[in-house]
Amino acid sequence: MKNKILYTLLTLLFVSFYSCKDDEIVTNGDGTDPNREFMTMFRKDDNTGKGENEPYASQVVDLNDIQLRWYGVKDCAGYEIKMALQPNVSSGLAEDWNNPKNLLMDTIVGPDVLDMLIKDLDYSTSYRFAIRTLSTKGEAYHSKWYGYGDQRHWADYMQIDTETRYPTPDLVVIGDITKNSFRLNMDRVYATSGDPGTYKDYFEVDADGNFVVHTISVIPSPTNPDAQVPDKWREYTITEEDFANGYIDIDGLDMNSVYVVNAENKNIPIHVDAIYNTCTVRTDGEPGEPIFLEHKVDPNDTIPGAVEYQAMCLDKILTDYTSDATLTEGTIFELEGGKAYYFANNPSLCKGMTMRTRQSDLDAGKGNAKIYMNGMSKNPDGSGVSCNFMFGRQPQSGESDAPINVKSVIFEDIDFDSPLATNYGDGKATGNYFANMYSNGMAVTFNSFEVRRCSFQRMIRGFIRVQGSKRKVFEKILVEDCLFYNCGYYDNGGNGYAWIAGDGKDPKSNIFRDIVFRNNTFYDSPRVNIFTDNNKTLAWPASVRYKMTLENNTFVNYSTRSSGRNLFSFKYIPGGSEIIVKKNLFIQTRAADDNRNLYFGGMDIREFAGTGPREITFDIADNYAVTCEESKQKNDGIFTSGAFSAKKNSAGAFITYSPGVINGADQLVVKVGSTPLSPTDLMVDPNPPHKNGDKDMHETTTEKLMNGLKFNKTDKVLNHEIYKLGIGDPRWRQ
To answer: How far apart are CA 413 and CA 599, in angstroms?
Structure first.
C-alpha cells in the first residue's frame, strides 16, 4: 500500500513535469505522432536526485538480483522492457537493441506494474535495460525508448552491474591440453581448499570432507559457438571411477577452439550458485607461417585522419583472428617497415599472438612499422581521439566467472603513437593507455606479455593498467630495449597511473610475478611510479610473491613535477618478494634558464601482508646518477625522497631481514662516480627543448632524442664508471 501511494504521487509529478518537455522535443520527423504516450524512465539518481541508495531506486539486491522500478504513466496500455548484456548494446544504436540475438529479455507488463525483480543473474556482469510506454492507440503512439543511451549522456541509459560472487574454491584445474582434448583435474578436498571458513558457508561438503559435485559440462565459448563438442560432455555425470582417478579426459574437440568448463552440485537449484570455479580452455592448433599484412590504405576510409596519416586499419584483422579457429594461438602478424597502421577502437587481447615489423624490411633500413592507437583526430573538447589494447574481453552470458587463458602476446619493432593525444599543457587531457582492462572484464591469465624494441609516444594516462574485481595473473611481463617519451600529464602534478598499475583487488591476482624492465629509456615523462599495486593490503596466499627487475635503464627527468613519485610504490608487499635494481642511470637535466622542478623518488615499501614468509630480497647494485645541479652531485644526492638506502620505508629498512639486502648497504647508494659528470658532460644534448611553463615543456622530437642522448666520446666519459661498467640503456654508448 505504501509503495502504491508513493508511486502514484511520483506518477503525477512525473507526468506534469515531463509533458511539456516531451512536447518540446517530439516532432513528426521521427515517424511518430506528437501525441504519443509520455516516455517513462527507470528510477535512478539522474532523474530522482535522491542518490544511488534511495530505497525505491533501480538497483542490485542480494549480490546478483536486480530490482527495476520505473515511473507510471496514467491510462497507458502497459510497458515494454528490454534487457541485454552491456557489451552488446553499448553503442546505443536502435539496430543493436532491436537485434533479438542481443537481448536477454523483451517482455511486456501491464499498466499497473511499476517494478520487476530479476533474480539469479550472472555475478560481476554489466546489464543494460530499456523501457517504453505502450499506448492503447497502437504502435505509432508508443513512447520513445528510455535506456538506449548514446555513450555520452549518462542520464539516457540504464546500466546495473551485479556484484562479485563470494569466494569459490578452485575445484576444476585444466591441464594436458592437446589439439583435440584436455584433462579436467578435480581437487575436491575441503581441507586443502585454502579458505575453508568462507567456502563452507556456500558450498556443500560431504561426510568424507569433499566438496559435493555431480556433473561437469563442456560447451563452446561464445567466441566460437560452432566449435565441436561431443554430446556426452555437454552434461556428463561424474562416476566413482572418475573420482578415484581425480581427473576426466575430455576428447573429441576441435583444435584451436575455446571451451567453457563447469562443475556443478545438482543439490543446489540455482545454476549460478551450484557451479564451482568456471574455467576456459583453448585447444592447441597447427602453427602456420607468419601472416604478412601488406600496407594498403583505403582511399575511402571513413575514420577521421586515416587517409591523412596514410594508415591501414587493423581492427577487423585482430577481431577476426580472435574467432578464427583456422588460425592457431600464437600466430605471427608481420607489418611493412616504415609504413603506418592503426586501430580505431579498443582491440581485445584474448588470444596469444605476435605482431612485429618484417625482418627483411628492418634489414633493408626501412625502419619500424608504426601503429597509431587512433589519435588521428580530436574530440570536440580538444582532446585526442584515442584507443588502447584491452586485456581479455567483456563477458557474454554464462561467462561471468570464466577466466580467459592467453598464451603469449608479443610486440616487436613497432613505433606506437597516438599523434593528436593531448596532455593538460594543450587543452583537455586524453586519458589513454597502451593497454588497459574493462572494469567488468573477465578474469585473465597470460603466459607472458612481451614488448621488445618498440617506442611509445603520447600514452598520456598510463602504460599498462589492470582493473576490475576479477583475477589477473601474468606469468611474465617483459619490456626490453624500448623508448618512452612524450608520455604523461603536463599538469595535475604529473599524476595519472603508473607505467605498470595494479589495482590491489583480488589477493590471488599477480601481475608482478616476474616483471622485467631492461635496456629502456624514459625521457621527461611525468608519470607516478614504474610499479605499484595501488598500495593495497590484501590477504595474499603464500603462493603470491612479486619479482620485479629494473636493470640497465636510463631515466632522464623521471617524474620530476612533484615529490613522492617513487619508482616502486608498495606500502604493503607479499612476503617472499624480490626486487632487483641494477645498473640503472638516473639523470636530471635542464638548461641554465629553465627553472623546472627536479624531484626524484626511489621506493616506498613499508611492511608485509598476506600469509607468505616475513622475508624479502633486495638485489640492488651499481646504480649511478648524473645531475645538472652541483649541490646534488654526490652519492644519493639525486633523491628528493625514498632513497634506496633510506632506513625507513625503503630497502635500507630491511638490512636485517632474510635474505634482505644481499649486496650490502653500500650498494644501496646511487653513486656519481669518482668524478661527477654533468648531463652535458655525458651526452651530446640531453636538455629538454622547452622551458618550464611552456605547454610543450615535456615534449621532444624523435630526432633530438636519438641524437641528443648519445654519449660524448671524451676521455672524461670513456674513463668514467658509467661507461666502463655499462650503466644505463646500452644504445647511447654505441
So the answer is: 32
Amino acid sitting at position 399? E
**DSSP secondary structure code for residue 286 in this structure:** -
Comparing C-alpha atoms, which of 549, 546, 565, 547 is closest to residue 557?
Answer: 565
Last residue of a domain, one of 282, 309, 344: 282
Residue 711 within a domain:
yes
Q: Which residues of 639-665 are buried (b: 16+ CB within 10 A; e: fewer)?
A: bbbbbbbbeebbbbbbeeeeeebeeee
Give the tens place of pLDDT for each residue, 358-405: 999 999 999 999 999 999 999 998 899 999 999 998 877 656 667 888
Peptide bond into 659 cis (omega under 30): yes
Q: Residue 207: inside a domain, yes or no?
A: yes
The answer for residues whose C-beta is within 8 angstroms of residue 232's C-beta and 6 or more apart is: none
Q: Range of 558's domain? A: 532-734
Same domain, 261 and 325: no
List of residues 6+ apart from 405 with CB closer than 8 A: 174, 280, 281, 282, 444, 445
Rounded to the nearest angstrom, the gap between the alpha carbon of residue 722 and the centroid of all alpha carbons in its chain is 37
- What pLDDT shows up at residue 28? 40
Please tell me the distance from the alpha carbon of residue 165 to that of residue 122, in angstroms, as a whole number: 9
The number of helix segments (H) and strand segments (E) in the chain equals 14, 45
Please give the Cα distance from 334 to 64 (Å, whole number).
44
Determine the longest span between alpha carbons in the chain, in angstroms: 93
The total domain count for the chain is 4
